[in-house]
Amino acid sequence: YATLSHRWGQKEATYAEYKQGSRCATEPGYVKLRNFLDEASARGMQFAWADTCCIDKSSSAELDEAIRSMFRWYRNSALCIVHLAQTRSVKDISHDAWFTRGWTLQELLAPPKIKFVDQSWKPLVKGENDKDILQSVSKATGIGTETLSKSFEPRTEKFSEKMSWASRRSTTRAEDAAYSLMGMLNVSFQTAYGEGGPRAFRRLLDAVVRKAEDPSVM
């Protein structure tokens, strides 16, 4: 299956709306989904998964499970299609807001194979896996090309380095700054929207310390 990595915009198609067919197919969220499905199909994928409509966010239990499983969803996919809505060429890549969002950090690191497409859904480079633009991605993220080129292992080691990557990014919900890091650190704790960013991050640190793979985080 293919996964979609993107910046959320206005009028995204939710689980309930997509299931009921209650939204206009010309709205931006539906157009994005259709383009994603077309791209996934063209690349031989049987199934496709998008966080906008494949999670029932009206269920707090399902949302909690989905957030804690998000890294694995991307890690187990055969292909992650990254839609850079503000990019027209590789030269623009470092200015795309996709590289400033909290959740897209793990969506960059987790998948075994990534394909970047521009705002018009055209591939930025030829080929099946975008290793050719690692220098541009490294510049935009602060993550070394050696790390980007290897299979990323979710662990608590090199905690400070990973926090430096995350510090360049932001989230709409304060708690997501912590929740979005669970998968890449290989820790898990229950989400509690409303607890605030500082408390969520403190619980993240508690989980990391308990894991204790890296003495430097103690």
TrEMBL record:
<dbReference type="InterPro" id="IPR010730">
    <property type="entry name" value="HET"/>
</dbReference>
<feature type="domain" description="Heterokaryon incompatibility">
    <location>
        <begin position="1"/>
        <end position="88"/>
    </location>
</feature>
<dbReference type="Pfam" id="PF06985">
    <property type="entry name" value="HET"/>
</dbReference>
<protein>
    <submittedName>
        <fullName>HET-domain-containing protein</fullName>
    </submittedName>
</protein>
